[in-house]
Design brief:
- The chain is globular.
- Helices cover about 40% and strands about 10% of the residues.
- Helix 11 (about 285-300) runs parallel beside helix 12.
- The longest helix is centred in the first third of the chain and has 29 residues, at about 50-80.
- The strands form five sheets. It has an eight-stranded mixed beta sheet, sandwiched between helices.
- It has helices spanning about 15-20, 30-40, 50-80, 90-115, 125-135, 180-185, 200-210, 220-225, 235-240, 255-265, 285-300, 340-365, 380-385, 390-395, 430-435, 475-495; strands at about 155-160, 170, 175, 185-190, 195, 245-250, 270, 280, 285, 305-310, 370-375, 410, 420, 425, 460-465, 470.
- The chain is of the alpha/beta class and about 500 residues long.
């Protein structure tokens, strides 16, 4: 139901939607076609007695009710897991299986109605949220990473559909991401970062990375609650004198990103109306043109600055023109016998090349000497949306079939020694990790976030958007922790918990 409120996204997503349909989806239309045929064939008016109509309806309704009720009732009394522990709110597939398709729609309508109600926390709930946030603090001694980049500019890049499996990999003896690989030689690489996006996909990643909060369990956070107060990355950096600008060559209404990011703390949001649409690819302006046009804007941005850049070209269905497909995989169709597999790798390779050019131009203009670049993927692409048999076979062939929701995080600065941090984490950990590097005292954001600083933590885990808990050992307590972590985030966002605690600019009230 929540998805119906996001129709403004459809203006450039039709190709992507159609690319994910399969022939079996036609079965969902069979009943409609049958009804139309029945109506045409049997056009005469049916005159039935009122008594017969009522009895017939009652019989059909009773049978339908029994069918719909069977599965949840059987689970309740025959399954070892009670209904209350089935976690339907985190897993719509499980809910549909347990309740049947009809039952799931009824459940969906109920949750939509419930979600539409204003959330007012009780004193007990407020205290529970406060304690949960306070318990997140590890209070560890500072280490060498504290303030490593204090005073430097920060360019934060959300790379569309970038999965971890492409990093440092080759195909046909060609590097897939040669420029990202170069950054690893002077950067910190987190290979065990995980996406935490839900129904808001890319916008959910923007939310998590900037606010250290999980996206809502249902619907897009940017659409449903664009004005929630946060202690965000741009807000804590503005207190250090930073200017903050977000760049995205898409319309302001797409995921409602301009309204939401403005509220999160970006002073300026540069949308598609500010660009010359001279090279459109897929969903909009090519990343080559986009990055070329924003480079002089960043040079003119008041320093120190935070620039948040959201790329677009590597979005599914990866419709990249032939002139940009430089890996040459189309020429070996028999070897790489899946369009989406070839096109995904070509698109990632293309965007990687444009990022390399972009950073090279910034270096020529003297920006990179005093700038940190952090790059992360918003969510899986090929692995998430296009896993048919041929794709799976090709992924297994190259050993790329165990990505497990991993997206890379790379933090680069000229002249630094390369490091690899194996600690597990998620996108909610990006904000505290970057804040620590940029010299923001942990007291400034501790108690307001759900993530942790991956450069100074004793904990090694990640919580996925389906409440799955990733660690060396997983216990029932871990699963309960994951579920509560997301529930706390939901309460914070929906009740606007920080509104009475933080000022509009994000600073704590005295």
């Amino acid at each position: 139901m929540h998805v119906l409120g996001q129709t403004s996204n459809l203006h450039n997503l039709w190709e992507c939607i159609f690319s994910m349909t399969q022939w079996v989806d036609a079965f969902f239309l069979i009943d409609i076609i049958a009804l139309v045929v029945f109506a045409i064939v049997r056009r005469k008016t049916l005159y039935c007695s009122m008594e017969r109509s009522i009895l017939g309806f009652a019989a059909i309704f009773a049978v339908s009710l029994l069918i719909v009720s069977y599965i949840p009732v059987s689970i309740k009394f025959l399954d070892k897991h009670p209904l209350s522990s089935r976690n339907w709110q985190y897993n719509s597939i499980l809910a549909s299986h347990d309740l049947s398709p009809v039952g799931y729609h009824i459940y969906n309508i109920y949750t939509f109605w419930k979600d539409s109600q204003k959330v007012v926390l009780t004193p007990e709930e407020k205290e529970d949220v406060k304690k949960w946030l306070e318990d997140k603090k590890e209070n560890l001694p500072d280490n060498k990473y504290k303030g490593m980049y204090k005073g430097k500019n920060l360019i934060l890049i959300q790379f569309e559909s970038l999965e971890n499996f492409v990093i440092n990999q080759k195909i046909e003896d060609q590097e897939i991401t040669p420029n990202l690989n170069k950054l690893l030689k002077s950067g910190i690489y987190f290979p065990n970062m995980h996406e935490q996006a839900r129904e808001g996909t890319s916008s959910d990643a923007e939310l998590a990375a900037n606010t250290s909060m999980y996206p809502l369990l249902r619907g897009s956070t940017f659409f449903r609650y664009p004005h929630t107060t946060y202690r965000s990355l741009p807000k804590v950096l503005k207190e250090q004198g930073y200017s903050t600008v977000a760049y995205h060559a898409d319309v302001a209404s797409f995921w409602n990103w301009v309204e939401a990011l403005t509220n999160i703390g970006y002073d300026t949001c540069v949308d598609s109306t500010k660009f010359k649409m001279d090279d459109e690819v897929g969903m909009g302006l090519s990343d080559g043109s986009f990055l070329r046009q924003i480079e002089p804007m960043i040079v003119r941005q008041k320093q120190p600055f935070l620039s948040f850049i959201i790329t677009l070209t590597s979005h599914g269905p990866y419709e990249l023109p032939g002139k940009y497909r430089e890996l040459g995989l189309d020429k070996k169709y028999e070897t790489y016998n899946n369009y989406f597999f070839r096109s995904y790798l070509e698109s990632i390779h293309y965007v990687d090349k444009q990022l390399g050019k972009f950073l090279e131009e910034l270096d020529k203009d003297g920006i990179m000497d005093n700038t940190v670049v952090a790059i992360y993927g918003d969510h899986e692409g090929l692995t998430r949306y296009y896993q048919d048999g041929k794709v799976k076979d090709l992924m297994e062939k190259y050993g790329w079939n165990n990505n497990n929701k991993r997206i890379p995080l790379i933090i680069y600065s000229k002249g630094m020694q390369p490091e690899v941090i194996e600690t597990r984490g998620g996108q909610i950990d990006i904000m505290p990790t970057l804040s620590y590097l940029m010299g923001v005292d942990e007291k400034q954001y501790g108690g307001y976030i759900l993530g942790r600083n991956l450069l100074n933590t004793k904990k090694d885990f990640a919580v996925l958007s389906n409440y799955k808990y990733l660690a060396d050992t997983v216990t029932d307590e871990n699963l309960k922790y994951a579920a509560k972590d997301m529930r706390i985030s939901d309460l914070i966002i929906r009740s606007n918990y920080f509104k009475d605690i933080l000022k509009d600019n994000g600073t704590p009230k005295k």
